[in-house]
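Shift notes (night). Ran NBEL1 protein while the centrifuge was going.
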Amino acid sequence: VLQKWVNREISNFDYLIQLNTMAGRTYNDLAQYPVFPWILRDYTSEELDLNNPAVFRDLSKPIGVVNEKNAKTVKEKYVFEHSNFEDPLGIIDKFHYGTHYSNAAGVMHYLIRVEPFTTLHIQLQSGRFDCADRQFHSIPATWQALMDNPNDVKELIPEFFYFPEFLENQNGFNLGQLQISKEVVNDVILPKWAHSPEDFIYKHRKALESEYVSAHLHEWIDLIFGYKQRGPAAVEALNVFY
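Came back to this:
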């Protein structure tokens, strides 16, 4: 598979799906759901220029420190927070992040508008929708939250590259309204450069297959599936998870 990918006989999308499968990830288990990278960092321009390297996320860094400002906090946490952490048996290893880049709650968060994930989300939240401000309601806002908060480290799911329906509230669920703006949470708000959910998926997939991502995707793979998952390489890469 690696050789096929290097020879460009399979797409970046197919390669990632195959890696996820080999790593034991599957659509049948929310706790081991396929994981895909955030690949862009420009969600505000009117047009998306895939020839400009500045529109892409730095794939060599874990999502929690893509914003340089967070790196200091994350390093300190590794050193200090661990000593405040309740671990009477002293068996929990040090970590940079107390949450994970892929978990069941995160999958339901993204897929809240489509069944069976809607019902699973409601079960998780004791029989009702979580408060509107915590819902997945806007792609630009979700990215901004990642940049501002080193504790939010969710990567993406494959649906961001082929499934426009998850961005629409086709079932008309009442997801509440935001506290400050009183805006009703309905369809997911898209980046300015996307004119519809289909257009978003089309451009996002194009970005995934772009020259820039093809040249850097292996850096992200090292973090998630490769040698930077544990040990000294993981510590150095600020990539140690609880």
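The radius of gyration is 18 Å. The first helix runs from residue 2 to 6.
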